[in-house]
Amino acid sequence: SQTIHQWPATLVQPVGSPLSLECTVEGTSNPNLYWYRQAAGRGLQLLFYSVGIGQISSEVPQNLSASRPQDRQFILSSKKLLLSDSGFYLCAWSLEGGGETQYFGPGTRLLVL
Amino acid sequence: KQEVTQIPAALSVPEGENLVLNCSFTDSAIYNLQWFRQDPGKGLTSLLLIQSSQREQTSGRLNASLDKSSGRSTLYIAASQPGDSATYLCAVRISGGYNKLIFGAGTRLAVHP
């Protein structure tokens, strides 16, 4: 069966510090991968998606970036965090080609102070 | 631009009540519509997926309907239980391309004994 992991679960970072959030998927090959951000009381906003190694598409311009160094690894990064980067970050995967649904990880709660 | 709205934003009901959550979307050209459940501080779990050609889907005490022409979907929960307390998110997959989901802000449900 497939599983998706995210870490860390919680992170408190000062403004201006770097960020690296990791997501890994097990039990499937060539998945589509997604990074979402969820602000308090709001829906999920798609940040990045990837259909393969090294292939990243950005949905929203921001100071975040994403990378996919391996087939089942997806990393969200920032060189300098802003207060507005606080939120709940969710990684998701779907079958190659899109699939019918997306499967979500447990999320990382980021607080920027 | 596709926008998804969920009403009400929050709902508190006594145990045993039947309830309806509403979702509306502005562009009827959708591939499918999904209802997700999110427990506090957790990831999303898919509840029901309705293809654009379908009218409804049922799973246990849950029934979701889709009226694509009017841009509406409802999630019906029968005989609500305290364990149903969570945030319910509606998401539409826009036609074509990769599996891109547009989410509503969710309805926060509290079922009290």
List the helices and strands and how they pair.
The complex is a heterodimer of chains A (113) and B (113).
Chain A: E1 3-7, E2 10-13, E3 19-26, E4 32-38, E5 44-52, E6 55-58, E7 64-70, E8 73-78, E9 87-94, E10 103-104, E11 108-112
Parallel strand pairs in A: 2-11
Antiparallel strand pairs in A: 1-3, 3-8, 4-5, 4-9, 5-6, 7-8, 9-10, 9-11
Chain B: E1 4-7, E2 10-14, E3 19-25, E4 30-38, E5 44-51, E6 56-59, E7 62-67, E8 72-77, E9 86-94, E10 101-103, E11 107-112
Parallel strand pairs in B: 2-11
Antiparallel strand pairs in B: 1-3, 3-8, 4-5, 4-9, 6-7, 7-8, 9-10, 9-11
How many helical stretches of chain B? Answer: 0
Helix content of chain A: under 10%
Query: What integer value in Å does the Rg of chain B equal?
Result: 14 Å
Give the overall form of chain A: globular
Helix/strand-derived category of chain A reads mainly beta
**Helix-strand sequence of chain B:** EEEEEEEEEEE
Uncertain runs of chain B are none
Overall pLDDT metric of chain A:
92
Please report the distance between the alpha carbons of the first and last residues of chain A: 38 Å
- SSE order of chain A: EEEEEEEEEEE
Structural class of chain B: mainly beta
Distance between the termini of chain B: 41 Å
Main beta-sheet strand count, sense and barrel state of chain B: 6 strands, mixed
What's the tally of helices of chain A?
0
Largest two-chain interface: A-B, 24 and 23 residues
**Proportion of helical residues of chain B:** under 10%
- Which percent band covers the strand fraction of chain B? over 45%
> Which overall shape of chain B is indicated by the principal axes computed on the Cα atoms?
globular
State the total count of DSSP E strands of chain B. 11
Strand content of chain A: over 45%
Structure overview:
The complex is a heterodimer of chains A (113) and B (113). Chain A contains no helices and 11 strands. With 113 residues, chain A is an all-beta fold. Helix content of chain B is 0%, strand content 59%. Chain B has strands spanning 4-7, 10-14, 19-25, 30-38, 44-51, 56-59, 62-67, 72-77, 86-94, 101-103, 107-112. Chain B is globular. At the A-B interface, strand 5, strand 9 and strand 10 of A face strand 4 and strand 5 of B.
